[in-house]
Amino acid sequence: MPPDVICALSALFIMAMAWLRTRMLYPRAGGNRRLTAAGAVYFTALGLLLLCGWVAAPPLARSLAAAASVAPTLARVVWFLVVYYLFIVVHRALRARGVAVFRSLERQMV
What we know:
The chain has one domain (3-103). It has three helices and two strands, in the order αβααβ. It has helices spanning 3-24, 37-64, 72-96; strands at 32-35, 102-105. It is elongated and about 55 Å long.
């Protein structure tokens, strides 16, 4: 499998894991969960950081580990994992401030 495909699948996997992990923390409350405006910003920022890592991770890894040869794929995947764990902390900070990423919509009886 080409390295760029591996990196793209890794980034997609990180986005899906962040979505699922975040969504699980909000109760369903008999209805559907919807993304809030803060949630849209949260996932946009996550996507942008993953995209930045695609470009920035290989040169950054080369500069940090000049003696060792770090493959671009490894540098990108490590960047993606670091961003994932960073966004766990960001989500906890948002929840501590009362900012919801998802909200529950109760089903309306007609």
